[in-house]
Amino acid sequence: MELLKNTVDQIMAGLSAKKTGSADAGPEQWLKKALTKKELGHIKVKYFNKGILGLSVDSSAWLYALSLKKEELLSKLKKENPKLKNIILRIGEI
Are strands 86-91 and 52-57 parallel, antiparallel or unpaired? Predict the structure, then answer.
């Protein structure tokens, strides 16, 4: 029984290491590096598919503000993941 516990612990530790590793970082991690905390509070990742990152923004004011920074944001995020092609911003639930 102890062997089973050790095996499960090793598997869980391996999964935790993968989640925190920068090689497998997801769009949320990329955004944390590219945006301020204030900006992060107003957006949510909806999808990342075929190089397109879909973000939901909580208001039209933030949609406008982030649209002005879209090219700068895209270039910062491409450094994190070169497969990224475009960002789509839409008003929606956060």
Answer: parallel
pTM assigned to the model: 0.72
Considering the domain 25-91 in this protein, what is its CATH number? 3.30.300.180
What is the rounded CA–CA span in Å between residue 39 and residue 65? 9
pLDDT in tens, 45-79: 999 999 999 999 999 999 999 999 999 999 999 99
Find out whether 45 and 54 touch, Cβ atoms under 8 Å.
yes
Owner of token pair 């090793």:
10
CA 32 to centroid of chain Cα atoms = 7
| Domain regions of the chain by residue span | 25-91
Other C-beta atoms lying within 10 Å of the C-beta of residue 57: 21
